[in-house]
Each structure stands twice: as C-alpha cells, then as structure tokens.
Write a structure and sequence with these properties.
This protein has helices spanning about 1-20, 205-210, 305-310, 315-320; strands spanning about 50-55, 65, 75, 80-85, 95, 100-110, 110-115, 135, 145-150, 155, 165, 170, 175, 180-185, 190-195, 215-220, 225-235, 235-240, 245-250, 255-260, 270-275, 280-290, 295-300, 335-340, 345-350, 360-365, 370-375, 380-385. The chain is mainly beta.
C-alpha cells in the first residue's frame, strides 16, 4: 500500500510538472471575474420546463434558429446542413449544406450577388483579403440567409439554396471560429469571430485561456469590405443590432458580460459595457421589436472552480492538461435573460430540472414565441414569450 501511494505521488508530481512546464500554445492570462449579479433588477419569471421541442431526432446541434417572412424555421446542424421547417417544426427539408458548421443565422432583404457572377453551389475561396466577393443589394423582396459558419466563414445563401462566400478573414487574419451574425436595417452585416486562435471544437480552451482572441466585425454588402470594430474580446459570441441601428451588442462569453458598440451619435465608434457580472456564460443575443427586449441565452451558470482559477494561470494550465472528463463541466441548466434598452434585467427564465432544454445557445422572438437553439441538443424548442409593459414613446 505504501509503495502504491509513493507511485501515485510520483505520478502526480510528474503530471503537474508536465502541465506547468511542457511547451504549449496554451497561454492562460490572469483576470478577476466580477461577483455575479443577484437580485439587482426587477425580474419576471416564467417556466422553461414547458419548452416544446421541435424537429426532434433529425440531426444534432441546431445552434440558432431563423424565421423567414413566411414563418418557416431554419436551423444549422453539426453535420453541415441547414434545414428548413414549417412553423410547427414539421415538413423538414435540407435547405443547403455548407460542409462546415453553420452557427449564427440571420435574414437580410434582397440577394447579395457578386457583380457579374451568379451565386455558386458551394463556398468560394476567400483568399487573404477581408472579403472574397464584393456584393451589391438588388431592389427585391427576396430574402437571403446570412450564415456565420464556424469553419467556412461568413456566407450568403439565396432562396434557391445557392451558397456565396462573403468573407473568411479580416485584416490579414483568417477566421477560426465565425460565430454569430445580425443585419441592420440598411443591410450592413455585423458578425463575430469568437476566436482567431481556437476552432469550434476547442471553445473550452479559448475561454480557459482568456487570451482575447475574439473580434466584432462589419461586412458592407455594397463594397464587400470587412471592418474590425472591436478586437481583443474574450470569446466574441452573440450579436444583436438595436431597434434604431444606434448600436450593436456583442456577448463576451469569457468575461460574463455584454458590450455595446455605438454606430451613430456622439459616441459613434466607441464601446462601453451594456451589462456586466452576469450569472453565467452569455451566448446568443437577439433583439425583438415585438417586446422591445434583448434576449440573452446563458449557455451555463458560472463554475466556481473556473472563477477560483481565473487569477491563477498555473492552475488553469493544470486544468487544461486534464482529460476533458475531469475538467470543470457546464451544468445542465436552461436560462434566458430579457434586458431592456438600458441593460437592466427585466425577465429571468430558468429550468434546473434534469430534463431541461439545455444548453440554450440562442433565442429568437417571433410574435408570441421564443425559439430556442442548442449547440448539442437533438431538437430546437419554443416557449410562449413573457409579456412586459413597453415604455411609452
């Protein structure tokens, strides 16, 4: 027994030495998480345990849901397909296949077409430039689906399912994890590269490292130019443009907060914190004019071990070297927050049951429904949208 303990101790010392001193590209940075907000705002709760699953067992990982003018539902899956369903999740069909990992989805008005070229069936090489194809918006009511594909970049898909590559890099840096997208009323496309260092399958490494590899960007469909609006973000995730296009919000998953980048007014080109100290990891975010609410999906609640290790890079090196099964894992909790235009929490929906629809990675409101996406579930879902009093103009 004594010999066994000695061997275990030697093995432990060897592992710690390996974790701390073996050369690695993983370079954790110290930081101090803010204490989580608790009960600081008026909250209206509603049960998430009533979430009604749609399109179950068709494919895995409908990370985001988009709704077209006809009320049809679109979701991207981990097999590279984007599937279209009727309003009740039935009559599913493959709308397009990106051969990547489609994540964020958003519709824009009119096609985005390369001058002098028709859209092709498949992404085109984007080269080293900020955008592969300058686009132009045609005067039509036809909708185009804009896709943030983690592996391929920023894509446009027309009504026939033809795919056009819009961008695969910016400022000479390729996208490694194109994540989410939203479209302003003038057609400008805002999107994120969660990390320029780690791909989608290594998202835990990026959050654990806290190295600031994320970016918020703008794609101009009139010129094909990509502009980096914010860099150095801690896992840049969800994107939502405000009702009046005055600003765009971006969730910083690794810092438990939402940032605001001003597009107009005296603060144009500047950024500030919209809401901080969230109780979990913010993922997708969307704005609904139906409820005048920004909806935020929390992927999981905070993890005490991760917060404890935040200012201890040496400990995070050890955690990083552990088998994934031994690393801190996200708790299976479904949670959504509703925020007003001042960044106050006005709605808090939670489900801690083992059967909860979780993790929730996106939320989109259409009429009286909130549609929920998930990175790993085998279905997407909807719940009735909570009602709240809207401010008078």
């Amino acid at each position: 027994m004594k010999k066994l303990l000695v061997l275990l101790l030697v093995a432990l010392v060897a592992f710690v030495g390996y974790a701390l001193f073996w050369p690695s590209a993983f370079m954790p940075q110290p930081w101090t998480p803010p204490p989580a907000q608790t009960g600081a705002a008026p909250v209206k709760s509603a049960p998430l345990d009533d979430a009604r699953r749609l399109a179950a067992d068709i494919a895995t990982g409908p990370e985001d849901v988009a709704i077209d003018d006809q009320g049809r539902l679109y979701a991207g899956y981990d097999d590279g397909t984007i599937r279209r369903f009727d309003a009740n999740g039935g009559n599913g069909e493959v709308f397009a296949t990106t051969n990547g990992r489609p994540l964020g989805l958003a519709f824009t008005r009119g096609p985005i077409e390369p001058p002098g070229n028709a859209a092709q069936n498949g992404p085109r090489p984007a080269g080293d430039g900020a955008a592969a194809i300058p686009g132009q918006r045609a005067p039509t009511d036809e909708q185009t689906l804009i896709v943030a594909d983690a592996q391929k970049g920023l894509l446009a898909i027309n009504a026939q399912g033809d795919i056009t590559m819009l961008a695969s890099g910016a400022g000479g840096t390729p996208f490694a994890f194109t994540d989410d997208v939203d479209v302003a009323s003038d057609g400008s496309i805002y999107f994120t590269d969660a990390s320029s260092k780690y791909g989608q399958h290594d998202y835990r490494a990026d959050i654990l490292e806290h190295g600031g590899h994320g970016r918020l960007m703008k794609y101009d469909p009139a010129t094909g130019d990509v502009t980096v609006l914010l860099g150095g973000l801690q896992f840049a995730n969800g994107v939502a443009v405000s009702r009046d296009d005055a600003y765009v919000l971006v969730t910083e998953t690794g810092s438990y907060r939402v940032l605001r980048y001003w597009l107009t007014g005296d603060n144009a080109g500047q950024s500030d914190v919209f809401i901080d100290a969230l109780p979990g990891f913010p993922d997708g975010i969307s704005y609904s004019d139906d409820s005048d609410t920004f909806w935020v999906a929390l992927f999981a609640p905070r993890n005490e071990m991760l917060d404890f290790a935040a200012d201890k890079p040496w400990l995070r090196r050890i955690i990083f070297r552990l088998p994934e099964a031994l690393q801190p894992a996200p708790a299976h909790v479904g949670r959504l927050l509703g925020l007003d235009s001042d960044g106050n929490v006005v709605t808090d929906l939670q489900d801690t049951n083992p059967s909860a629809f979780a993790p929730i990675t996106s939320v989109e409101q259409s009429g009286g429904r909130l549609y929920l996406g998930s990175l790993t579930a085998n279905a997407f879902a909807w719940i009735p949208a909570p009602q709240r009093d809207r401010p008078q103009p």
